[in-house]
Design goal:
It is a single chain. The protein is an all-alpha fold. It has 6 helices and no strands. It has one domain: Up-down Bundle (Four Helix Bundle (Hemerythrin (Met), subunit A)). Helix 1 runs parallel beside helix 6 and helix 4 runs parallel beside helix 5.
């Protein structure tokens, strides 16, 4: 089997990462999300108020805000690595944000989008594709897909809880 070029690998993998974060480019053809508009990480988070993002889906469980911060933190670590740094990360601290106010929620989502955009730029700037880089990209895809699934469950549970308590789902 011949080695695959950098362009072939990126054309295969990066749309899947984009689907996880932004949703499918073409809702008629998806890899793992549903066909609803804004069904990726960004759309799921944007559909939550700060209060919902700060509500745990069950006692002792992480909030949507915590998942968002964890994703932002993980992309920051990846970005530092892609810049050639040796990022020492204290992963437990990536879950420290559990509650946000409206301004903090908006800022967290902006920072997540910024880290994601930087990740895409840094990958694009890499001239060579090696096993370590490919592993990092595939790991980022898997990580995003996992947290997208978790976020969609959290969003559903906190929306149901708000509705049952007499509030609104948004």
């Amino acid at each position: 089997m011949p080695d695959l070029s950098r362009q072939v690998v990126l054309r295969a993998v990066m749309p899947i990462l984009a689907e996880a974060y932004a949703g499918p480019a073409d809702p008629r053809s998806t890899n793992f999300v549903n066909n609803a508009p804004d069904c990726g990480v960004f759309g799921t988070l944007d559909g939550l108020s700060a209060a919902q993002a700060s509500t745990p889906p069950a006692p002792g469980r992480s909030t949507a805000a915590a998942h968002a911060e964890h994703l932002r933190f993980s992309l920051d670590v990846s970005n530092r690595w892609l810049r050639g740094d040796d990022p020492k990360a204290h992963w437990p601290s990536s879950w420290a944000v559990q509650t946000v106010d409206e301004e903090g929620w908006m800022r967290l989502r902006e920072r997540l989008r910024d880290e994601y955009a930087q990740f895409l730029e840094l990958i694009d700037a890499r001239a060579e594709m090696d096993e370590e880089l490919l592993g990092g990209i595939v790991g980022t895809v898997a990580h995003a897909a996992y947290h997208l699934g978790a976020l969609r469950q959290v969003a559903e549970l906190v929306s149901q809880s708000a509705t049952a308590a007499g509030g609104t789902a948004s």
